[in-house]
Amino acid sequence: MNAELAGRTRVEMVVATIHQRISGRSLTPGARLPSVRGLAASMKLSTSTVVDAYERLVAEGAILARPGSGFYVANQAAPFALAEAGPKLDRAVDPFWISRQSLEAGESDLKPGCGWLPPAWLPGEAMRRGLRTLSRADGPALADYGQPLGLPPLRQLISRRMGERGIEASPDQIMLAESGTQAIDLLCRFLLEPGDTVLVDDPCYFNFHALLRAHRAKIVGVPYTPSGPDIELFAQVVAQERPRLYITNSAIHNPTGAVLSPVTAHRLLKLADQFDLTIIEDDIFADFEYTPAPRLAAFDGLERVIHIGSFSKTLSASARCGFVVAKPEWIDGLTDLKIATSFGGGRLTAELVLNVLSDGSYRKHMETLRNRLSRAMGEVSARLKGLGITPWLEPPAGMFLWCRLPDGVDAADVARAALERKIVLAPGNAFSLSQSATNFMRFNVSQTLDARVFEVLGDVLGRQRR
């Protein structure tokens, strides 16, 4: 037996054999494969094994099945050009730049600029237990559409969790979404008309810009401070622009790590009431807090504030599950919109998230994660300072450091130079509507512990200063 085939199942052995023949050109595009019986006899295998292997090859697109005729090698795609796999260095540093570079990065690339935790920091074993439990579930859980509002037991659990943060919301005021991003997209569809004005923080999460532009909104930025938006400027802008929405993070702000103060929160809500402003409170980092920060939704009682959350940052980015919390009449309209755009909810993911949140290990996981992030925050902050990169503030929790680069250094230039060396960074102007963060950069401390990051940063900064 070929050494490369040793240790494989019989089906895998047949699949590998056919792949070898195709790559070795003994089977060329359009060539007919051996019959099932013929290959089974030559390899001393059962016909069912060969059938299973051929079906797998058809599913891969490697071969084609022609009823009554047999199996044929599919036309092969053009050879993969290694040059095409390189980073797109000439792409503009816009709201999509960081997302594209982070999502398309190779396994060996480093991603200090991305917005998620390394897989090893997430509760992989709890997810596996949940998947095993779900594999034994009844038919509807595995195959049926979910209810429009989403899985009732998960909404009940979220309702209890909201109560711990001072937000009173019944399960019927909670609608599950595929992610926090989908939740904001649905809210924009529900609340905005093209040309409506929306306020965002400057800086803010760059995908807010992308989403709002997709909805053809007029975007206006308000400078952000360590205690929230600059409230005097916020009042001026609201009076002048009469925006329809304000989108913000109140707990752990992205990218700055700042926390909204109670005084600023109360003044924001007074302005919202005075100028008929709706606030979307994006709270996807809530579980990273040691002590709950003020929530606009708690102060407001969900009159003008819509609260959204997600489990992608703490459980898995692969199991997408978010939620919207709002007053009943808005939830009713949002539910109709959800049916129109995605029909039933993602029941399978909701069942998995419920299972993991209910097995008793999640609180312990988050306690360990918070402590691990705190240690990483201290280590990364110290090492960045050694390079002349200064944190804007020392966040009380979370994964982000918003940092000022040395004078005269352009963060976009640093990011492009680092990308050539397989390191994805997050330059400041991707977060800034006013493009006033030229020499700022956001670092995800969980992704910035590798010594290569600081080696490359030191080298690139040294060249920029010359």
From TrEMBL:
<dbReference type="InterPro" id="IPR004839">
    <property type="entry name" value="Aminotransferase_I/II_large"/>
</dbReference>
<keyword id="KW-0238">DNA-binding</keyword>
<dbReference type="InterPro" id="IPR015422">
    <property type="entry name" value="PyrdxlP-dep_Trfase_small"/>
</dbReference>
<feature type="domain" description="HTH gntR-type">
    <location>
        <begin position="8"/>
        <end position="76"/>
    </location>
</feature>
<dbReference type="InterPro" id="IPR036388">
    <property type="entry name" value="WH-like_DNA-bd_sf"/>
</dbReference>
<dbReference type="Pfam" id="PF00392">
    <property type="entry name" value="GntR"/>
</dbReference>
<comment type="similarity">
    <text>In the C-terminal section; belongs to the class-I pyridoxal-phosphate-dependent aminotransferase family.</text>
</comment>
<keyword id="KW-0805">Transcription regulation</keyword>
<keyword id="KW-0663">Pyridoxal phosphate</keyword>
<protein>
    <submittedName>
        <fullName>Transcriptional regulator/aminotransferase domain-containing protein</fullName>
    </submittedName>
</protein>
<dbReference type="InterPro" id="IPR015424">
    <property type="entry name" value="PyrdxlP-dep_Trfase"/>
</dbReference>
<dbReference type="InterPro" id="IPR036390">
    <property type="entry name" value="WH_DNA-bd_sf"/>
</dbReference>
<dbReference type="Pfam" id="PF00155">
    <property type="entry name" value="Aminotran_1_2"/>
</dbReference>
<dbReference type="InterPro" id="IPR051446">
    <property type="entry name" value="HTH_trans_reg/aminotransferase"/>
</dbReference>
<dbReference type="InterPro" id="IPR000524">
    <property type="entry name" value="Tscrpt_reg_HTH_GntR"/>
</dbReference>
<dbReference type="InterPro" id="IPR015421">
    <property type="entry name" value="PyrdxlP-dep_Trfase_major"/>
</dbReference>
<keyword id="KW-0804">Transcription</keyword>
